[in-house]
């Protein structure tokens, strides 16, 4: 399904700063890879902003995210991760989520995420303060990951992921376990990259979440948001943008414009 046989595991582990084939039980390795992937490969949409086509085949994903050390958005990140996990012997099912971020209404399911081994929610492609490590698909259990806390609700076949922020719970997204294929993601990828109402068109979006904060750039605005609800923003100059992308996000973008 995910063409894991095409993955260069040595190159991927090197990109994550891990030694090839780290040992340990499968669950520990899954958590290790999830966290290391997030730390090394940030969310970014520079190609979408610039009208560059996004390839979702494994060779294209390896070239961009691994060899050229770029980031990517949810389809790129989670398809690469699915191929790696499949190669390592995990059972991976693609799913689609409706990104809410506290909103409601008629919102399409356009976010790619993964179910692993039938019982873990894995998502290395959600830039908006998402999971650091896989979350058990168990409802009504609060799980702490660094300073963040998450919980899942499950009602009428729909899972909803919440994050504790500013003393309350914010809804991040909801999803069903209906399986999605790489072909499904190709359609969603094209929709988000071309639809005139897509929030990713015409502006740079870069995001990285660690144990303590979500760091993001939108155009030239650098934001640090913490789980306690505190937010710090500042405008970057063109030179500061290039430096911040390189030093804080590990990115050398083809055109670091705002």
From TrEMBL:
- Taxonomy, superkingdom: Bacteria
- List the Pfam families: Acetyltransf_2
The family assignment reads: Belongs to the arylamine N-acetyltransferase family.
Name of this chain's protein? N-hydroxyarylamine O-acetyltransferase
Name the species this protein comes from.
Saccharothrix yanglingensis
The opening ranks of the lineage are: Bacteria, Bacillati, Actinomycetota, Actinomycetes, Pseudonocardiales
């Amino acid at each position: 399904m995910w063409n894991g046989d095409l993955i260069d595991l040595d190159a991927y582990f090197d990109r994550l700063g891990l030694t090839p084939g780290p040992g340990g039980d499968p669950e520990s390795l899954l958590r290790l890879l999830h966290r290391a992937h997030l730390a090394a490969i940030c969310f970014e949409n520079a190609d979408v902003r610039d009208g560059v086509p996004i390839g979702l085949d494994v060779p294209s994903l390896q070239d961009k995210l691994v060899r050229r050390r770029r980031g990517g958005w949810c389809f790129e990140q989670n398809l690469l991760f699915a191929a790696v996990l499949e190669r390592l012997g995990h059972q991976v099912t693609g799913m689609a989520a409706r990104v809410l971020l506290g909103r409601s209404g008629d919102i399409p399911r356009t976010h790619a995420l993964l179910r692993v081994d039938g019982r873990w929610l894995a998502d290395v492609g959600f830039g908006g303060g998402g999971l650091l490590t896989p979350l058990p698909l168990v409802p009504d259990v609060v799980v702490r990951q660094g300073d963040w806390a998450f919980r899942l609700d499950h009602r009428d076949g729909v899972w909803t992921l919440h994050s504790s922020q500013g003393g309350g719970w914010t809804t991040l997204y909801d999803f069903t376990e209906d399986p999605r294929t790489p072909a499904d993601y190709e359609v969603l990828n094209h929709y988000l990259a071309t639809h005139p109402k897509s929030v990713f068109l015409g502006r740079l979006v870069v995001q990285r979440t660690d144990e303590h904060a979500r760091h993001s750039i939108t155009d030239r605005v650098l934001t640090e948001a913490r789980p306690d609800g505190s937010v710090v923003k500042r405008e970057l100059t063109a030179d500061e943008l290039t430096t911040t992308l390189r030093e804080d996000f590990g990115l050398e973008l083809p055109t670091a414009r705002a």
